[in-house]
UniProtKB/TrEMBL annotation:
GO terms for cellular component: plasma membrane. This is MFS transporter. SUPFAM superfamilies: MFS general substrate transporter (SSF103473). The keyword Metal-binding does not apply. One of its GO terms (molecular function) is transmembrane transporter activity. Residues 21-423 form the Major facilitator superfamily (MFS) profile domain. It is a multi-pass membrane protein. It comes from Planobispora takensis. Keywords: Cell membrane, Membrane, Transmembrane, Transmembrane helix, Transport. It is found in: Cell membrane. The keyword Protein transport does not apply. The chain crosses the membrane at residues 21-44, 64-85, 97-114, 120-141, 162-182, 188-206, 311-329, 335-358, 401-420. Its main location: membrane.
């Protein structure tokens, strides 16, 4: 269920050239971008169940570090592309970057479906990482542009909910297809349909939103010229280190995706070694992003009312507890409970961190700040693949799980100590 925009919200004032900010004023385009981001999430969901199982059954990769190379390739390329997506969308506009991302996605489903070697899987995930960096980053930036400051948390909640509900639905569907038709090629045909539809909508129907960011910047009475002069290097420094809230958000985002890499690459292997069927693994793989996706429709809106910091701190600690439950639990019911808990914790964190970046960053450099934040956040995929794979190879799968649980709890403590409240109406 999603939280509606309150009817009492005052109508936004028109900006330059009649541009209006706010969800109600831009509802058709906002809904369209939600749908586009669902297709972006579906491209990721096609791999969540199939690739961890393909690594050993089709390509004979038993070492966890080697098997997780596809997550490393995906995370590293997506992280770097996120950074450039913000810069490119400021320079050339949001829509061209979105369309370019979908063009790059077109060959991705065919490569794991019919590729003759693991190198094809790695290459597909390089392309997928570039595509996701361009498309997901741009849909985030465009929704922030449209929403304005009043409902930014709700906007991010809806954006991320659409993406991760699609991840969940596609993971569930591909688990079923793999059980019935085999791991290749049937599960990847969904991805081919998503890519074609996403490219068509982005090219023909989506409209440019850079003017909305300029309208919001013009409405701020002071500091606009100073902010416009910030270099990319200065923005990187602020987002990564010098600004307490932005830097706390960046590290929390990185650790969040570090534990998502564990859920993606290690959890299916644990469940398979404990005797679960592919269909059961598909259900567990879908349950976590489903709760994550549904929860964000509420938590993003909630952060607009109660503030950002405490939701993020709580969410990181809940994630840590859920990961520990995977190590401690035994059997489908216990692991299902862990996936629900992990999804709930991630829902508290994910849209709220993006809202923090939107709160703190000036519209003149916000797109680049989003790119830097997402560089750190999706770098967590690569770090998580390396860390989880190495620990699993040196000790055990369970040791990898406990290591990531401890890091996630520590990240929550960093947010509690370093971040200040950023919601404009909640700052004291």
């Amino acid at each position: 269920m999603s939280a509606p925009v309150p009817a009492s919200t005052p109508a936004p004032s028109p900006g330059p050239a009649g541009i209006r900010l706010g969800l109600a004023a831009n509802l058709p385009q906002f809904v369209l971008l939600v749908a586009v981001n669902a297709l972006v999430g579906g491209m990721l969901g096609q791999e969540r169940i199939t690739l961890p199982l393909l690594a050993e059954s089709a390509f004979g990769l038993s070492a966890h570090t080697a098997a997780l190379t596809y997550i490393l390739a995906f995370g590293a390329t997506k992280a770097i592309t996120n950074f450039f997506a913000g810069t490119l969308s400021d320079a050339f506009g949001r829509k061209p970057v979105l369309v370019a991302g979908w063009l790059i996605a077109l060959p991705v489903p065919a490569m794991p479906a019919w590729g003759p070697s693991w190198a094809w899987i790695i290459a597909a995930n390089v392309l997928l990482g570039i595509s996701q960096g361009l498309t997901w980053s741009t849909t985030v930036i465009m929704k922030i542009d449209l929403a304005g400051p009043e409902r930014r948390g709700l906007a991010m909640g809806l954006n991320e909910a659409a993406g991760y509900l699609a991840v969940a639905a596609t993971a569930l569907a591909t688990g079923y297809l793999a059980e019935v038709y085999g791991l290749r090629p049937a599960p990847f045909l969904l991805g081919a349909a998503y890519a074609a539809l996403g490219l068509g909508l982005s090219t023909l129907v989506v409209r440019e939103t850079r003017g909305h960011a300029r309208a919001e910047a013009a409405a701020r009475p002071t500091g606009g010229h100073h902010h416009a002069e910030l270099s990319t290097r200065q923005i990187v420094w602020r987002t990564s280190i010098s600004d307490r809230s932005l830097s706390a958000a960046s590290q929390a985002g990185m650790v969040n995706n570090l534990n998502d890499a564990l859920a993606w690459g290690i959890f299916p292997v644990i469940f398979a070694t404990r005797g679960l069927s592919v269909a059961q693994i598909g259900v567990l793989g879908a349950l976590y992003p489903a709760i994550w996706g549904l929860g964000q429709t509420v938590t993003g809106w909630w952060s607009d009312h109660v503030g950002r910091k405490h939701l993020i701190t709580t969410g990181m600690l809940v994630q840590a507890a859920a990961i520990a439950l995977v190590a401690l639990g035994e059997g489908f019911p216990a692991w299902a409970a862990a996936q629900v808990l992990l999804g709930a914790g991630t829902a508290l964190v994910y849209p709220t961190l993006l809202a923090v970046v939107g709160d703190v960053a000036h519209p003149a450099w916000r797109a680049r700040a989003v790119g830097v934040y997402r560089l750190w956040r999706d770098g967590g995929f690569a770090l998580g693949a390396l860390l989880a794979g190495t620990v699993a190879d040196l000790w055990s799968l369970e040791a990898a799980v406990w290591t990531v649980a401890a890091l996630t709890a520590a990240s929550g403590a960093v947010v509690a100590a370093r971040m200040t409240e950023t919601h404009p109406e909640k700052i004291r």
